[in-house]
């Protein structure tokens, strides 16, 4: 199967957009990710998938902690910045939760201790044990077919 066909198929799954952050010593590193999921309620576990070539892989392995911020629809520029699509250095005003940098005003900020790392193909699945989180109101930044999208105003079905 062709890689492009596989990517196109996976792009048909609408996702939220997250920024994964961690701190190693005094150095902060972040990356945009839409490969995120909840894993377990007891214990509370979440998962993020990181390419083996990404610098974030080494940061998480060495720090043993990471944070995940669910972006709101007004934070598209932060998504692009942490995806490396904006070639400038910015001073990010992080929101600190449990001594971990998270994205200020995100819908959700989650802080995790690294529970397990599993190599899977060309990615590492980092499973984090949630140690704290905060929730805010707002609309999510979503991603579908390689583009940012906004939620429609369609009626809810019960």
TrEMBL record:
Q: Which InterPro entries match?
A: Flavin_Rdtase-like_dom, NADH-dep_flavin_reductase, Split_barrel_FMN-bd
The protein's GO terms of the molecular function aspect are: FMN binding; riboflavin reductase (NADPH) activity
Task: Specify the Flavin reductase like domain's residue ranges.
Answer: 10-150
**Could you tell me which SUPFAM superfamilies the record lists for this protein?**
FMN-binding split barrel
Asked if the record carries the keyword Oxidoreductase, the reply is yes
Name a biological process GO annotation: pyrimidine nucleobase catabolic process
Q: Which UniProt keywords apply?
A: Oxidoreductase
Q: What is this protein called?
A: Flavin oxidoreductase
**Can you name the source organism?**
Ornithinibacillus bavariensis
């Amino acid at each position: 199967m062709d890689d492009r066909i596989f990517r196109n198929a996976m792009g048909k799954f609408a996702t939220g957009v997250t920024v994964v952050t961690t701190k190693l010593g005094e150095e902060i590193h972040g990356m945009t990710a839409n490969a995120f999921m909840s894993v377990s309620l007891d214990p509370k576990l979440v998962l993020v998938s990181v390419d083996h070539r990404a610098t974030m892989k080494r940061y998480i392995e060495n720090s043993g902690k990471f944070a995940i911020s669910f972006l709101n629809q007004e934070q598209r520029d932060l998504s692009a910045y942490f995806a490396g699509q904006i070639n400038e250095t910015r001073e990010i005003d992080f929101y600190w939760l449990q001594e971990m940098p998270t994205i200020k005003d995100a819908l959700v900020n989650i802080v995790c201790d690294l529970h397990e790392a599993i190599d899977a193909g060309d990615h590492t699945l980092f499973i984090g044990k949630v140690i704290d989180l905060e929730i805010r109101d707002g609309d999510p930044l979503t991603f579908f077919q390689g583009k940012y999208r906004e939620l429609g105003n369609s009626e809810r079905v019960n």
